[in-house]
Protein: Branched-chain amino acid ABC transporter, ATP-binding protein
Amino acid sequence: MLKIDQLHAHYGLAHVLQGVSLTADAGEVIGLFGRNGVGKTTFFKTIAGWLRPTDGSVTLDGETLTGHLPDSMNRAGVAIVPEDRRIFPGLSVEENLALGLMGRKGGSSKSHLDTVYDRFPRLAERRKQAGNTLSGGEQQMLAMARVMVAEPRVVLIDEPSEGLAPMIVAEVFAIIREMRKAGTIVLLVEQNVHEAISLCDRFMVLERGQAILTGEGDDDDDRKRLLDVLAV
Ligand SMILES: Nc1ncnc2c1ncn2[C@@H]1O[C@H](COP(=O)(O)OP(=O)(O)OP(=O)(O)O)[C@@H](O)[C@H]1O
Structure:
């Protein structure tokens, strides 16, 4: 279980994350919604170790991870697919995936790469191409595949559908469903609320660094409240 308890974070004097709590069990997808600038990305950065929390705690299956650096969070099984995707533009598809495999517990082998290529034939076709020659959709697939090969326990995915064609968005969402099926905890930030909510077991809405609404993805009343509060 992922347990985030009263997490706070600052940028200098700006108190951006003001005591956000959340729990998630294996195989749950939690949607994080809210307008621009309310602290969703900051929440992810703080969980992933890119930003040191000023208070609160992060534990995963009972292990305290609060304040760990990104490398250490990665080794503990917390992975992030950031909004800008962060693939290595000058490295080939295969080299990008090899870097993902390095984060894998219990070593890696060629068969793990083959498994990824079976799942993402398009990446197999482009395995020798540099990351920056891929389309936006292919880059998103690569970013997600790179995380999946490490078989993390928690994946934080920030706005994966941004700038992508509807067909690719459907594919991205299908991958998230697969992650859930594999027992991964997925925290998902999405502006595309109407579509994303159907993926989510539960959701939380942030406003000015605080949770103002939580609910269940398949509860009609909760969904209505969600759409009302976001005015979408
Ligand atoms: N590196 C930074 N230094 C100072 N302030 C920052 C920094 N990054 C973000 N902020 C501020 O912190 C607040 C929360 O930003 P954050 O990016 O977490 O919001 P968000 O909900 O993810 O929004 P968006 O959807 O626009 O990414 C905003 O007011 C933003 O301007």
User: Anything to note?
Assistant: The mean pLDDT is 94.
